[in-house]
Every structure is written in C-alpha cells, then in structure tokens.
Amino acid sequence: MIKLSRARSALLAVAIAMSVAHPAFAGPGDKALEDVRILSADDMQGRAPGTPGSEKARAYILSRFAQLGLTPIGERFEQPFTFAKRDGSTVQGVNLIARIRGTEGGKAMVVSAHYDHLGVRDGEIYNGADDNASGVAGLLAVAEAFKAQPPKHDVIFAVVDAEEGGLRGARAFAAAPPVPLETIALNVNFDMLSKNPKNELYVSGTAPFPYLKPILVKVAMTAPVTLKLGHDTDAEGKENNWTNQSDHYAFAEKGLPWVYFGVEDHPEYHKPADDFATVPQDFFKRSVATVVQASLALERELDSVAKASGR
User: Fold this and answer.
1) What whole-number distance in Å separates Cα of residue 69 and Cα of residue 265?
2) Residue 241: Cβ-neighbour burial (10 angstroms; 0-12, 13-18, 19+)
3) What stretch of H or E contains 295?
4) Which CATH class is domain 2-309?
5) Averaged over 239-251, what is the pLDDT?
6) Greatest CA span in the chain, whole angstroms?
7) What is residue 179's predicted lDDT score, i.e. its pLDDT?
8) Is 70 exceeded by the pLDDT of residue 13?
C-alpha cells in the first residue's frame, strides 16, 4: 500500500506540475510553453550576461519563483559573480538560487538550468528558445511538482548565468555553494529539452554513475517521450560525450554525481532561428513531463544515491 500511495502521489505531482496557473492557458505543459515564449521573446535580446535583456529575464524568473512560493537560501535569490571575457573586460553575472526544504532534511539535490544565451550578433537576436529557455521552463515545472509533493530532502534550484561563456555561473555556484558541498548528493541539469524530430530525449550520467541506471531505466519505461541513456562515454566518440558540455560539468569537477537531460543538436542550435516559433509544442510538453517524472524519482532515491557514491 505504501508503494502504491507514493506512485499515485508522484503521478498527481506530475499532473499538477503541468496544470495551469494562468486562466488563458488551459492544457498540460502550457505553463512551461508560456515560460519559453516569454524568455525567448525579442525583448529579452538573447539574454546575454550583463545586458538589459538578461536583467529582464531575471525579473521574469523571479516572478515565477514568487508564484511558486519558492524561498531563497539566505536573504536573496540573486547571487552575483564576476568573470573576465576574452577581450579582458569584466562582466557581472547573476545566478538565481532557491530552495524547497525537505520534510526530513539530510542530503540535498540541485536542479540546474542556465538562462543566458548568445545575445545580439550582427544585428540579429539569438533568442535561445531551446537553448536554454526550455531548460529553465523544465526547472520551474519540477519546482512546482515538488511544491505539490514536498520532497524528503532539500531541493535547490540553480538558474545560472553565463553558461555559454564557459559554465561561469555553475562554476561560481560550485566554488561557493549556498550549502556545504558535502551535503549535495546529486546534480540534475536541464539544457535543451524542446526539439527532437525522433521523439527522443537523452539522459547522460548513468555510465560514470551506474547506480543511477536502474532509477532512470524505470522512468524510461513509462516516460511520455523516448528517454534514451547515453552520450556520456568516449566510446561514442569524444564529440558525442556530453560530460563537459553543460553546467553539470562544474559539479563533476567537484566530484559530485550528475545527470544531464537534453536533446541532440538540431539545425537551429546557436542560430537566430532557435525561437519559440520553431518549438514543437507537443514534444516539449511531453519532454517536460518526463524530466518532472525523473526528478521526482531521483529525489525519492537520493539516500541510496548518496550511499552508493560515498557521500
């Protein structure tokens, strides 16, 4: 009976995560779609770090934190950091960090997604709908699911800046985490969740951390998209190994287990055409439902993950 109750609770949380907060949007996943539409609109100017568009994107994300009832760690959600560009100039990036406290405490799980993109180049706006407004939308859906079904462990939401320039925000987080590093058992990272013509979403991380495989294989059995494991060994070719391709690598550098959800590259990748109009909406809704389902499952097993990893 306990297992059945938890399973039903998980399904309910997924449904609530995909439900509607705004009356104008009335179907599963529409809230996540609206997040992508707003974050990838022209007035965000491609969300390059240190720009008015980046500031506007942060304001929107913070408004969503407020809607979801998330709380900061400490006094503020905003965690600024500085980094040097290749031309020697200094830019201030800003990470947005929130937390949902667990009912029992103990270890923590960090869910991450970067909100920056390439900005404006040669007069064209690189809107970054898939890369990575989609990942931020997925993170917000996961946060809503955990608000509906409180986690056993603390879940930290890291919406990080300056990924495109060398994982700067994620590395700033990992260098000075808001909780002791030894309490973080797992990083779950989302980067590009919305575009794949084959109905495929990949999750990397089970090759270096085989104890995660049974959890994710079970998720894949009922996931609303084809969830494939891979892109995490050089046996597939170094260019196909995603271990260092997104923010999870900053956690890997600190010896932390990670999983990374994303789609393979597509024709709009790092092009001005990566805008909301090119997002296949049905696939994206199902992709978001999948990462919600996976995040709930990984948090439920976080104690066993921590034990297997020696944390």
Assistant:
1) 34
2) middle
3) helix 281-300
4) alpha beta
5) 94
6) 61
7) 97
8) no
